[in-house]
Write a structure and sequence with these properties.
The complex is a heterodimer of chains A (about 250) and B (about 400).
Chain A lengths: L1 E10 L2 E11 L4 E5 L6 H9 L4 E10 L2 E2 L5 H6 L2 E4 L6 E5 H8 L9 H9 L10 E2 L5 H15 L3 E5 L7 H14 L12 E5 L13 E6 L2 E6 L1 H22 L1
Parallel strand pairs in A: 3-10, 3-11, 6-9, 9-10
Antiparallel strand pairs in A: 1-2, 1-4, 4-5, 7-8, 11-12
Helix pairs in contact in A: 3-5, 5-6
Chain B lengths: L28 H7 L1 H6 L11 E6 L2 E7 L4 E5 H7 L17 H8 L5 E5 L9 E7 L5 E10 L4 E10 L5 E12 L4 E9 L3 E12 L4 E8 L5 E4 L2 E4 L4 E10 L4 E10 L5 E10 L4 E10 L4 E11 L5 E10 L4 E10 L3 H8 L5 H13 L8 H16 L2
Helix pairs in contact in B: 5-6, 6-7
The chains are: A alpha/beta (about 250), B alpha/beta (about 400).
Chain lengths: ~250, ~400
């Protein structure tokens, strides 16, 4: 589904990814681990084609097509979606309208479909009237991002730390919804959507079963493998030791 | 390229404009309303008067109609009212000083109409009352004096539109407005301005809100104008509340100096002022807001936000707070800048193109939740704002 080959990426002229390779097959869910500043979020925004994230080498292939030079909107139309970690407040656009936009509906009317989805994420109807992200709590931001993704229903889902700053109750809800987005309840052969999840403490892996884990360091993927094994190695010896052991074996 | 333009709009001599206008008569009302229907509708004046509790229309210096359908609500020509009610003279020039500036002096010397509106004690308006001051003659100076009295416990909504005929380019509108919101009463006043590119506008307003009263002011300016300058001052008594929401889209060569001041002089009174301005082309906006807290337990917040859509426009945001007592809680939030790239990126990640995202952000920016309006009127006002945003 997604093939990234020798990707070099600059943010405002500063190199952040240095020859990164990654392959995600249809129906797979991958987690991305790594210390702060290792380039995890840049990778996601680069895949999505944000203008500040400039590809200086390599390519991104999505469903067989080279998308390296496409705009964000074009990539989204091909089926990409993202849940941001710290999304901006948009004044005057209500969450309900935003959910409509995700579905490609530009009307301001909040539909039953939106209400039903919102309810699944424990949002009241009144909450849908609030300006997007204005005064939302940490947990509300996470749920609102997932709500927007559910409405968008992309087949490649990126999530930037969906588990940071979330209490246990919300974590179960969010985990369940991510599982749904990624068709994790289906047999592997029936899963259509794929996912790439950034996680700091790997909490999400307690709620969503994951096929692969990658450890990023210095703008490259230093190590890939079985999630349980990698998470154990990191918690025992840190990122660098994990990568060293990984590269020796 | 970046010019430095003065803060204040030019002083314009009312003498440079003419006071002579043809007299229009109420008998021609339907003809006049028919001729200017589109312009009237654009400022919220519905000639059919549907879902309105009354109507007042003035063309140049002539009052074309002053009717009410709800008992307890009166609307008539303010000069006529002064003759009719001897007590009314106490209300003239109490909230605004006659010698404040050359414009108030011009109105004091040569008043040409204006409305008197009164809601009797305890009367609650079901539908808003609509008023419109319309200029149909080139180079005219329209000098109106409006008086609004909302008696104890009454509730009144007024929607007022000011506009010009489509063939009028240059004119002057001077409007003195004095509002008296009595004990426990509520007034919502929604003003929509729609001027021509060479019209000079100088409203001068004062609002006195009595104990436990509420005054809500909404101001909307969407079309180009030569210059508008106004700075209504609201005085809040004990436990009184005021809210003001200003939405300005300044384009072309418009010069706009608009703000409001609230004096919280009664204990526990409250004020909330919200101003949103967009400047495009060569527009020059000064957005002011001031709250003075001079009694115990007062609270005030002002928000002054400007969005720049051009390199040749200018927005000067001037939030001011002044406390003269220890127990006052005043705050403000001010910001001026371009559309945030981060916000655009966020919306493109949901599938909008960059242009669509910018449009949605501008629309959202202007989409202030206009408070205190009956739902149907709120929807009308939102529609007007949306149309203006879509035209950007």
């Amino acid at each position: 589904m997604l093939e990234i080959e020798n990707l070099n990426l600059e943010v405002d002229g500063r190199p952040v990814l240095k020859g990164l390779d990654l392959i995600i097959e249809k129906g797979e869910c991958h987690v991305l681990l790594g210390p702060n500043g290792s380039g995890k979020t840049s990778l996601l925004l680069g895949i999505l084609g944000f203008p500040r994230y400039r590809v200086t080498g390599g390519k991104i292939v999505f469903n067989g097509a080279d998308i390296t030079n496409l705009t964000t909107a074009e990539r989204v139309k091909l089926g990409m979606g993202i849940a941001f970690q710290n999304p901006p407040v948009i004044r005057g656009i209500r969450l309900g309208e935003m959910v409509n936009l995700c579905r490609g509906d530009k009307s301001g009317e909040i539909t039953d479909e939106t209400r039903v989805l919102a309810k699944e994420l424990h949002f009241t109807e009144e909450f849908l009237e609030r300006d997007v992200n204005a005064g939302f709590s940490g947990g509300e931001i996470k749920r609102s991002e997932i709500l927007q993704l559910m409405a968008q229903d992309p087949n490649f889902v990126m999530l930037d730390e969906p588990d940071s700053g979330v209490d246990i109750e919300n974590m179960e809800l969010i985990g369940g919804m991510i599982g749904k987005l990624l068709h994790r309840r289906e047999r592997p052969s029936r899963r259509i959507a794929s996912g790439l999840i950034i996680t700091h403490l790997a909490t999400i892996t307690d709620y969503v079963d994951v096929d692969w884990a990658h450890v990023m360091l210095g703008g490259r993927i230093g190590c890939s493998g079985n999630p349980d094994q990698i998470i154990r190695q990191i918690s025992e010896g840190g990122y660098e030791k994990c990568i060293r052991e990984c590269q020796m074996s | 390229m970046h010019k430095r333009v003065p803060d204040v709009v030019n002083v314009v001599n009312p003498e440079d404009y003419t006071m002579d206008a043809e007299e229009h008569v109420p008998e021609d009302r339907s003809e006049i309303e028919g001729e200017y229907k589109k312009s009237l509708l654009e400022v919220g004046y519905d000639p059919d008067g549907e879902e309105r509790s009354g109507s007042f229309l003035q063309l140049d210096h002539s009052v074309i109609c002053s009717t009410t359908v709800q008992e307890g609500i009166e609307v008539i020509d303010s000069s006529e009212a002064l003759e009719k009610y001897s007590w009314l003279s106490d209300y003239f020039w109490r909230a605004v000083a006659a010698d404040k500036d050359i414009y108030t002096k011009a109105v004091a010397e040569k008043q040409t109409g204006g409305y008197f509106v009164r809601a009797a004690p305890g009367v609650k308006s079901i539908f808003p009352l609509q008023t419109c001051l319309f200029i149909g003659k080139e180079r005219l100076s329209q000098n109106v004096h409006n008086i609004v009295i909302v008696e104890e416990g009454a509730e009144l909504h007024i929607i007022t539109g000011c506009s010009t005929a489509q063939d009028v380019r240059s004119a002057m509108h001077l409007g003195v407005s004095e509002f008296y919101v009595k004990k426990g009463a509520t007034l919502t006043y929604t003003m929509i301005h729609n001027w021509a590119p060479e019209v000079v506008v100088r409203p001068r307003s004062g609002i006195i809100v009595g104990e436990g009263g509420t005054y809500i002011n909404n101001y909307i300016l969407m079309k180009p104008v030569k210059d508008v300058q106004m700075y209504p001052v609201t005085y809040c008594g004990r436990n009184a509340r005021t809210m003001a929401q200003t939405v300005i889209h300044a384009s072309k060569d418009s010069k706009v100096d608009i703000g409001s001041k609230v004096v919280l002089e009664g204990e526990n009174s409250r004020a909330e002022l919200i101003s949103r301005s967009i400047a495009t082309d060569q527009a020059n906006v000064t957005a002011r807001g001031a709250i003075v807290g001079s009694a115990a337990g007062v609270k005030g917040h002002l928000e002054c936000i400007g969005l720049m859509l051009s390199n040749t426009a200018r927005i000067h945001s001037v939030p001011e707070l002044e406390a003269t007592v220890e127990d006052a809680e005043l705050s403000h939030e001010a910001a001026v800048g371009r559309i945030s790239e981060e916000e655009i990126a966020y919306l493109t990640a949901r599938g909008l193109s960059e242009d669509e995202a910018a449009g949605a952000i501008v629309r959202g920016f202007l989409n202030v939740d206009i408070k205190g309006l009956p739902p149907a009127l709120g929807a009308e006002v939102r529609q007007m704002i949306r149309m203006s945003a879509d035209a950007l």
